[in-house]
Amino acid sequence: MAPAPLSPIKVGHIADVQELRKSKPTTIPERFVRDKTERPTLAPAPLSPNAIPIVDFSKLTKGNNDDEVHGEILKLATACEKWGFFQVINHEIELSLLESTENMAEQFFMLPLEEKQKYPMAPGTVQGYGQAFVFSEDQKLDWCNMFALGVEPQHIRNPKLWPTKPAKFSETIDVYSREVRKLCNNLLKYIAISLGLRQNVFAEMFGVAVQAIRMNYYPPCSRPDLVLGLSPHSDGSALTVLQQGKGNSIGLQILKDNSWVPVKPIPNALVINIGDTIEVLTNGKYKSVEHRAVTHKEKDRLSIVTFYAPSYEMELGPMQELMDENNPCKYRRYNHGEYSKHYVTNKLQGKKTLEFAKIQT
C-alpha cells in the first residue's frame, strides 16, 4: 500500500490538523516542529488538583458567616496574586449546560472539513474556524484547530460565522455565554473586594463588557515531544474562563517559578485566569500568567474558553488606589480597543503583547 501523503490539507494557507491526523503521516510536517528550546518536556508530574488554588464560589455568595466569606476572599486574593490561576467549584452553572456545550463543540469539530470551512477565520482576525495568530509563512503552527465567535456586545458578532450545524449550536452557546458572563461579573466583584476596592469598580470601568468564546480541539499527535497544542501566551482579557473537556488528556500547563506545570482539572470545576487587563488595572499586583497547551500521543483534547474584557471604547490604566511611593505607576493609560487590536495582530509570544502598556524605564 502506498504511504499516506504528507502534504498538509490547507485551511487558507494553514494545515488542518484533524485532516493531517487522518492521513497518519509518518513524520510531523516541518511547520509544526518546534525549535529545540520551545519543545515541551513530556510528562512532568501534574500538580495535584489541590495545588492550584480552589475557590468555592458558593462560600463567596452564600457563606454561613462573615468569617467564611472573608476566608474565601483571602483565598481568592492569594490565587490572583501568587498564581494568576485558580479553579472555581460550585460556580452555579448547571452541569447539564456544561455538558451540552461540550457536546456541541465536539460535534462541530467532528463535522466534515467542507462544512467547517463554511466559517473561515480570515487572516488577522480571531473569529471563525482555523488557526488564529498566524502572520507569516515561516511561523510555526500549533497542533490545534480553533473555532471562535464574538458574543457580546451584539455588534461584534459576525452572524455568518454562527454555524447551522449541529442543530441548537447557537442556542446552546448563547445560554452558556450568558451564564459565564454572570460568573465573570460576580468574580470581578469579589476580586475588587479582595483589593480593598468598591465591589462595582470593574463593572463601572468596563462599560458593556466584550465577551468572546473559543473552542480548541487538539487531535492526538504521534510526536507530542516536537509540537505545541497552543503557543505560550498570556490572555489580553480581564478574566478568562476555561472548561476542560471530560476524559481528556491533561493539556494545560502554566509557567510557575520558571517551570511549566501541568494543571489537573477537577471534575465540573472551571479554571479561571487573570488577563493582562487586570494586571494593568491593579498596577501589577495581580499578574496575568503565561500558559500553553501540549498534545498527547493517543488522546485528543477539547477545551472551551471564554474571554471577558472591557468595552473597546474604554480608557484604561492603573487604579490610583493601587499606586504609591513603594509601588509607582508601571503602565500607561491606553484605549482598550487599541490594545485588543495590538493583541490580535501579533503572534502569541509569552507576555510580549503587554509591552504595549508598560512604561519603559
TrEMBL record:
Start and end residues of each Fe2OG dioxygenase domain: 208-310
Tree of life domain: Eukaryota
Key words of the record: Iron, Metal-binding, Oxidoreductase, Vitamin C
UniProt xrefs under PROSITE patterns: FE2OG_OXY (PS51471)
Annotated GO MF terms: L-ascorbic acid binding; metal ion binding; oxidoreductase activity
Family: Belongs to the iron/ascorbate-dependent oxidoreductase family.
Listed name of the protein: Fe2OG dioxygenase domain-containing protein
Originating organism: Carya illinoinensis
Organism lineage: Eukaryota, Viridiplantae, Streptophyta, Embryophyta, Tracheophyta
